[in-house]
Every structure is written in structure tokens, then in C-alpha cells.
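Why do we care about 3D structure at all? Because function follows from shape, and shape follows, mostly, from sequence. That is the central idea of this module. The next example makes it concrete: a single protein chain, its amino acid sequence, and then its structure expressed as C-alpha cells.
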Amino acid sequence: MTDILQLGDPRLRETSEAVPEADFGGAELARQVDHLIEIMRQANGAGLAAPQIGLMRRIFVVEVTKNPRYPYKQPIPLTVFINPRIIAMDETPIEVIEGCLSITGWRGRVPRSCRVKMEARDVDGGTFCVEAEGLAAGTLQHELDHLNGRLFVDLLVNAKSLTTWDNYELFHRTAWEREANEINQSYPAGLTLQP
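And the structure:
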């Protein structure tokens, strides 16, 4: 398995390059995307961005099924985002507790917009649009941040919210899952593909 880059690796702070038009539909892009999906699944992640494995391209993948690390997250079907961009955003904030496969063992509270509309390309070059709300919107914003060299620790509501995963389990998990359930009730749609 390819190693996931960790906090302190300067590549995580770089802005990724757009995938050029000539690469769409090609075997190399498909291989890179398949590799990204495989690593995300092996690590039990809800998403993974290409820069996290040292591939400085504007690609990320998301998928939430029955993930033991995030039992409170709404389901998200496997979706590949290439050259994504937010085309609309509801500025109403929600606070979420996030972790990151590139910051192993840590979690913290960050503000996210409650709704986003994102446009992207698929592996064959087709354009699609999704709307996401609640925790799903937070997941998309988290992964897009990776493409711009930002990490969740840059956005902490308060540095005191940063906690180890073990202490999250001991002291914060029950309260956060209750809060996440309220977010899910307020924003039930999760992620939906737009026509």
C-alpha cells in the first residue's frame, strides 16, 4: 500500500495542478483513481485526495458506507471528483469534528458551510454536479481543501478542541455523535447528484 503523507510533509501544503484535458479517458488517469480508491478503502477513510499520496493533481474520492471510524456520517456513494470547484455555497456555518488520514490520531472542531454545490469531471471527462449538505458538505470541503494545500488544523474553531483519537473516544465521542445526529436531522439530504 502507498503511504499516506503525514502532517509536516511540504507536499500537503502545495496547490495541486488541474488534470489536463488530454488525460481524460486515458489508462493512466484511471489507474491513479483506482489506486486512490483502494488506499482510501484500506485506510477506512471517508475520502482521500491525490496530494495525500504525493500525486499533485486535482483529484479526490469520497465514499461512506458502514465506516467504523465514522458511524454517524450519512452514506455517500463512491464518487470521483476531478478538477472540482464549488459553484455555490450556503455560508451558514456548522461546526464539525474532523479527523484526517494525513494527521493520524488527531481530531478537532472546524467550521464548514452547511451546503455546497460542486461541479467536477469524471475519469472519462464528463462533467457532473452534486449538492451536499450537513456532514456530507463538510466532507467535500475537507477534501477540496487538500487540493489547495489546506488541512483541517488550519481551520480549528479553537485550538483547545484538538484532541487525540483516544481522548476523543474517551471524552468527546458520545456528545459529538449526538450533535452529528442533530446535524443529520437538520440536513438530511447528504449528497445528491444533480441532473
